[in-house]
Amino acid sequence: MALDSKVPKGPIKDKWTDYKNHIDLVNPANKRNIDIIVVGTGLAGGSAAATLAELGYNVKAFAYQDSPRRAHSIAAQGGINAAKNYQGDGDSTYRLFYDTVKGGDYRAREANVYRLAEVSANIIDQCVAQGVPFARDYGGLLDNRSFGGVLVSRTFYAKGQTGQQLLLGAYSAMNRQIARGKIQMFNRHEMMDVVIVDGKARGIIARNLVTGEIERHSAHAVVIGSGGYGNVFFLSTNAMGSNVSAGWKIHKKGAHFANPCYTQIHPTCIPVHGENQSKLTLMSESLRNDGRIWVPKKKEDAEAIRAHKLKATDIAEEDRDYYLERRYPAFGNLVPRDVASRAAKERADAGYGVGHNETGEAVFLDFAFAIERYGKEQALIKGLDQNNKALITDLGKKVVEAKYGNLFQMYEKIVDENPYETPMMIYPAVHYTMGGVWVDYNLMTTIPGCYCIGEANFSDHGANRLGASALMQGLADGYFVLPYTIGDYLSNDIRTGTIPTDTPEFDQAEKEVREKVDFFINNNGTKSVDHFHKRLGKIMWNKVGMARNEKGLKEAMTEIKALREEFWKDVKVPGTADTYNEELAKAGRVADFLELGELFAKDALERNESCGGHFREESAEEDGPQKGEAKRDDENFAYVAAWEYKGEPAKAVLHKEELEFKDIELKQRSYK
């Protein structure tokens, strides 16, 4: 199958407008006769469900949580990007487009990224109209802050809880449509499979997680907005329920899975603190606006901190290495996430880490300078004594608390240290996934009538997502892109009528789902689901993690396959299938992770270059000012890797979507 991205012709700045001018539409009276299933009700799925229902379609929305308000989007902290140039610092649609393509290490589709930048400004207006309480400056205008990989302030935020506020906006829009009967909401329902009829996605099989009942649901189109797959590593910043299963189910029915090796390691997370830990906690990248990252210059100081013989505050200023500011003077602490993460790993590997575990896997994020700076500014404004250190500290803390208070509170509760008085300890952790289901310009997968939006698709972020762009992409897809493009497809279905569920295709799909559920309940194994998930996570982190090499990737593929075979023989799922059974739900999700993990390693092995979040040790700059930085190979790897399912992950077939760069020059990234 040849991959057709369906990117419109013409100048990039006109593509989206011209495209909308010429696509087929469904008139309002006909929308009432068309059904759409939306799987996932986070920012992408929630905004899509609300908008499609507002337009007049009949929507069935599915969430495995007890409410859309519990979608993992709620955990996003720092903000949402938009090219509104409120700061007057030179931002524009083109600059957001450029920063996103460059930040993604030139591995994104130009046309999609430009459209994302173009509609970004509309998102802010939409959310303000919904009542989202964005931060405002002294004059009452919406405030902005900066994030990594950019030289402007374009990030709109609501303290450190932007995702929560945006999700509540989408949820309120959904609730209005639920009350009108335009959205049927299925909470505590998990999609178990997609149903293909005559080559088109025409419904899903869902399981009621409370009663165990297997249900058939039909529609004229199916939209997947089920988030990312970071939990393939077991430990990640994702909610523990986040999974790949909806995307993986459609992959196994014909949707290509693209760039699975593109996974983002977030540089500012609370370090791992024990073997029994089940997830990691993110500290927002927004903290890098005011926090300075450092490690001791002397190894003996780092060793003393690890041994609890010295504290961070004991290290004199001249004995601190602000390594990001030293290595990347132009961007400093605000380099992109992949660059900051690798730099932290390099310092820890070299023996300068300050964590209290054997490996010292932590660096400091220090707010003392920001507290002093803000304190002096406030003292000057209020006409107070700028030489009174206690007063300056108190005033500065209040400013920092107003900007980041809930984040500092979270840190103190988890680590039991006061970050106003001692630097935070942070270290990189698995966060966002740039890979996902391949989609064309319309956001349609390689299965006709099956769409994929938000983090679940292979995204507009290339090989590395810039901070505050996840919320932007999810809401752009749901509010402003999919509602147009899906109409072009559904215009052919205005006379189709309701899709029946008493057909051989639904029979077969339900049969397969029941067989898998019965297998898990009846398998007489001895090991828990978590036992296998943790072992998978260790293989992934050690051999497919922040740095990868040919030997490790080949070993990972062999080990994951063996682990998967052991899982199917020896997994133990307690309880029954006809009641709420979290272990049963988890078993199905981990089964999918065990297949994805191998494809992930295969994709990383195939891509013998370094780009963004994918760092191959064999492909690093060997000398010059860029020594040690990721080295892309544009001649051989300027493509999207889209994998077709052929049974075993090792047998997956690679399809390449060649990437063209007509509006941005293709060159090695530099943040120095």
UniProtKB/TrEMBL annotation:
Signal sequence annotation: none
Gene Ontology cellular-component terms listed: plasma membrane
Residues the record marks as active site: 337
Protein name per its UniProtKB record: succinate dehydrogenase
Residue ranges of every copy of the FAD-dependent oxidoreductase 2 FAD-binding domain listed in the record: 35-471
Entry-linked PANTHER family: SUCCINATE DEHYDROGENASE 2 FLAVOPROTEIN SUBUNIT (PTHR11632), SUCCINATE DEHYDROGENASE FLAVOPROTEIN SUBUNIT (PTHR11632:SF53)
Topology term for the membrane: Peripheral membrane protein
Entry keyword Protein biosynthesis: no
GO BP annotations listed: anaerobic respiration
UniProt cofactor(s): FAD
Domain of life: Bacteria
High-level lineage: Bacteria, Pseudomonadati, Bacteroidota, Flavobacteriia, Flavobacteriales
Subcellular location: Cell membrane
